[in-house]
Amino acid sequence: MKEQTLQAKSQIVDEIKEKIGKAQSVVLVDYRGLNVEELTELRSQYRKAGVEYKVYKNTMMRFAFKDSGLEDFNEFLTGPNAVAFGYDDPVQAAKVTSEFAKEHEKLEIKAGIVDGKVIDINSVKDLANLPSREVLIAQVLGGFNAPIQGFANVLQGTVRNLVYVLNAIAEQQEA
């Protein structure tokens, strides 16, 4: 019986480690004080954003974060905690959490992980203020497009001026 319990706990720790390894970002929150309706709304918002929200026992998370080389994260594992794993976009977990925390003051952001580095509350909030990956890509592509468009306008202006000069020369020769 004791061996089964140990094996079950080991599987949970392995599951958490796997999620940490796959996630581009992790956000730790204290959900104390939120009612069932608010928690359901939070889970729904996470789901829509492609973020996985899970509640684990702190002892299981301590083992998983320690085994993942993120021991610094363990200092935040006090009280009831939930973890949001952002897989596709490193900004989404922080963005959804921050937006929800603005409307529901009882949701407390504790810390986060981005690119294997532990970040504090302020860094999580800064991360939330970044545009999404799609917006950043569009901005970069727009930045690439602007010089090309400017170059095309310059060439177009040069051709236009050449036409004016040739037209003026033709008018002079006719006169």
Automatic annotation (TrEMBL):
<comment type="subunit">
    <text>Part of the ribosomal stalk of the 50S ribosomal subunit. The N-terminus interacts with L11 and the large rRNA to form the base of the stalk. The C-terminus forms an elongated spine to which L12 dimers bind in a sequential fashion forming a multimeric L10(L12)X complex.</text>
</comment>
<dbReference type="GO" id="GO:0005840">
    <property type="term" value="C:ribosome"/>
</dbReference>
<comment type="function">
    <text>Forms part of the ribosomal stalk, playing a central role in the interaction of the ribosome with GTP-bound translation factors.</text>
</comment>
<comment type="similarity">
    <text>Belongs to the universal ribosomal protein uL10 family.</text>
</comment>
<dbReference type="Pfam" id="PF00466">
    <property type="entry name" value="Ribosomal_L10"/>
</dbReference>
<keyword id="KW-0687">Ribonucleoprotein</keyword>
<dbReference type="InterPro" id="IPR001790">
    <property type="entry name" value="Ribosomal_uL10"/>
</dbReference>
<dbReference type="InterPro" id="IPR022973">
    <property type="entry name" value="Ribosomal_uL10_bac"/>
</dbReference>
<dbReference type="InterPro" id="IPR047865">
    <property type="entry name" value="Ribosomal_uL10_bac_type"/>
</dbReference>
<keyword id="KW-0699">rRNA-binding</keyword>
<protein>
    <recommendedName>
        <fullName>Large ribosomal subunit protein uL10</fullName>
    </recommendedName>
</protein>
<keyword id="KW-0689">Ribosomal protein</keyword>
<dbReference type="InterPro" id="IPR002363">
    <property type="entry name" value="Ribosomal_uL10_CS_bac"/>
</dbReference>
<keyword id="KW-0694">RNA-binding</keyword>
